[in-house]
Amino acid sequence: MPIRARAHLHKRRRAPLAALSAIALLWGSQPAIAQQADPLAPTGAWSANVDGAALTPPMGWNSWNAFFTDLDEEKVLASAQVIVDTGLAAKGYRYINLDEGWWQHRREDGRMLANTDRFPSTRTPDGATSFRPFTDRLHGMGLKAGLYSDLGRNTCAQAYMPDQTNLPRGTMTEREVGLYGHIDQDIGQFFDEWGFDYIKIDGCGLRAYGPESERVMSGQYRALDPILNLETVALSDIPAVKGLFGEVKTALMRYNPDNDFVLSLCIWGSAHVRAWAKDVGNVSRTSDDITPHWGRMLTNFDTAVTRELYAHPGSWNDPDMLFIGKGDFDADHLTEARSHFTLWAFLNAPLLIGSDLRDTPQPLMDIFGNSALIALNQDAGGHQAVLAFDTDDLQILVKTLADGDKAVAILNRSSAPVEATLTAAHMKLREDAAIATTDLWSGEGASFTGEMKVTVAPRETRAWRVRGSRALADGMYLSELPGQVNPAVDGVTVPEVDPTIHRAANFGTRGSGARPFYTGWGGARADSTPYGRVLQVAGHHFASGIGVLANSRLEVRNNGHRRFTASVGVDDSAQDADNEVTFALYGDGRLLARSEPLSRGMPAQELAADIAGVSLLELVARSGDAVTGQLSVTWGDAALVQR
Ligand code: GAL
User: Fold this and answer.
1) Is 14 a residue whose pLDDT tops 60?
2) Ligand 1 pocket: which of 289, 291, 320, 322 to mutate (most atoms <8 Å of CB)?
3) DSSP-H helix ranges across 256-305
4) What is the pLDDT of residues 233-284, one digit of tens each?
5) What pLDDT, on a 0 to 100 scale, did the predictor assign at position 629?
6) CA–CA separation, 148 vs 107, rounded Å?
7) Closest CA to 287 of 313, 312, 323, 251
8) 458-472: pLDDT as tens digits
9) What is the Cβ-side half-sphere exposure of residue 346, based on CA atoms within 13 angstroms?
């Protein structure tokens, strides 16, 4: 729902955020007791989510951006048919997802009923309704079926949609169609009985139905004390929200023993979800809704682009669905439409088409069908692109592919052309050896040595697949492998607002403007400190490395390398000059190497160990409890090598 439509609600202060780090540890497969005792103790286990069917980002179609709540079976199946007929299904677009607008109401016994007027195939002789014929039809077409619900009792459209024509009908309790109080029953009905494969779970029911909200005061809806607040993280009850998603996950595991499910979290970057969704779900929205405006697309892009270490096979950042087909991304704006698609591919975002495919112009269909970009998005390595160059006007993104190739995108965010220079160093390639490039839009091949000059038109994103000689010949920097690095404990104890996210004005100029409110500032980063500075220890600059706060534990999957090397130290940008930090490396739970206690200003210390045969490394940076101010630490040049 658009921000402007969302009322600011009175909220009561909830559980103190100091509880956050302790609660964060309860997620994942680590033993909870050991975690509570010492969150930095090695576990020997990868804790980011791997359950569900999302080893690569989900691809498909969703009804919302095309139809909002005005959806029906004919519209959905027509788009599904186009996906099959045009070959998009064969290219990976498989999920056909119903967003809000499918329900009739909840029966007294708790059973959810589908809207049989809108979805005639759900009609059953006993009135119980069933989506089984619908999902059978999609499955018969070689597709998968997705459904939508809310974690609260009521929904977003009930709260915010001005068009009330297709809302749940009936008494107050019949209109309570959200999962709240019915998680196990609903998930069983949707997956086991109806045969759905994917669920998107919204959060408006946890946000918009406070006792003083207009809709509750009017007597239409039952009050639910808000536990989510998009604008103010301190007003969200993070443990409670996590707990509810945990219940959903448990139910999904129970009703999908074949693991064929996708859990999509849709709480728009609130409740500090950008730090913990990776532990419970398959995709998670990092921001409020995208709209078909260039500025808003940039906002959504920004909420995911610095979260490269929080996305892995099994759990992806979701900057929202594609809005190609409307406004700044329609057929008259192919530059912008191609940029939008390119950026989503580089982010490893879900590729969910949001246009009415019955009349989508061919040039836009061609964008969805760009096989080279789909291949990047679906690359088995699962590495989200990393920012190699970052300014407000121009950004360069580099993504490592499973076969060792790289992909590079240059985004011109501005309204004037930019002369960009792409260097071998941006890609961590040697500057004295030829670099072969393939343009991902034209297919044209070329080659350069050292650097290449490129003109990037306003709002254009140029993109190539490249192959050259690696600067680090016999290994990989961890910052090239974000899909293998999981910030299990990132050291953030009090969520902070990220000031770097574009604040678009597309909702008009009433009020005081768009304030920064997406938390995640201070999270672990590739080739950057947690606060966007260059990595630097005692004056020595590291072009490669991982930046993270002290009191953190990073899990790293080793894929057959023999040695770990790094230069570790407290970053020069740390505010805390007094506390010492000890760096330790563990392999499958065993201590392999440990640094001296280091404080700011001391030179980086080598930390290396043999890791042959080790499958999971843990990189722990530990300092005392009395950290004063930001204590950024640097795993400089951290790499997995063969030597
Ligand atoms: C929003 C969500 C949208 C869409 C809408 C339905 O909260 O972000 O993607 O699902 O609700 O009402």
Assistant:
1) no
2) 289
3) 273-276, 294-305
4) 999 999 999 999 999 999 999 999 999 999 999 999 999 999 999 999 999 9
5) 81
6) 18
7) 323
8) 999 999 999 999 999
9) 32
Cα(13)–Cα(186) distance, integer angstroms: 30
Nearest CA to ligand 1 atom 5: 1
Interval 306-354: pLDDT, tens: 999 999 999 999 999 999 999 999 999 999 999 999 999 999 999 999 9
Residue 454: the pLDDT is 98
Residue of 595, 591, 527 lying closest to 567 (CA atoms): 595
Q: How far is the CA of 116 from the centre of ligand 1 (A)?
A: 22
Which residues, 6 or more positions from 511, have their beta carbon under 8 angstroms from its beta carbon?
Answer: none
Rounded-to-integer distance, Cα 174 and Cα 168, Å: 8
Eight-class DSSP state of 604: P
Q: Taking a C-beta distance cutoff of 8 angstroms, is the pair 297, 329 a contact?
A: yes
Asked if the model's pLDDT at residue 17 lies above 70, the reply is no
Under 8 Å between Cβ of 206 and 241: yes
In testing the pocket of ligand 1, which one of 4, 64, 199, 229 has its CB within 8 Å of the most ligand atoms? 64
Q: Measured from the CB, is residue 99 less than 6 Å from ligand 1? A: yes
In the reported structure, the alpha carbon of residue 576 is separated from the centroid of ligand 1 by a whole-number distance in angstroms of 42
Where are any strands of DSSP class E within 168-282? 198-202, 262-266
Ligand 1 center–CA 560 separation, angstroms: 42
Q: Which residues contact 512 (CB under 8 A, 6 or more apart)?
A: none
Cα 569 to Cα 577: distance, rounded to the nearest angstrom: 12
Residues taking part in catalysis: 202, 289
Ligand 1 centroid to residue 202 C-alpha, Å: 7
Pairing of strands 552-557, 535-537: unpaired
Average confidence (pLDDT) over 158-180: 92
Q: What is the band of 36 on the pLDDT scale with cuts at 50, 70, 90?
A: low
Return d(Cα 479, Cα 547) in angstroms, integer. Answer: 10
Q: Residue 343 CA to chain centroid, in angstroms?
A: 13
Residue minimizing CA distance to atom 7 of ligand 1: 1
Q: Side chain identity at 7, as an amino acid letter?
A: A
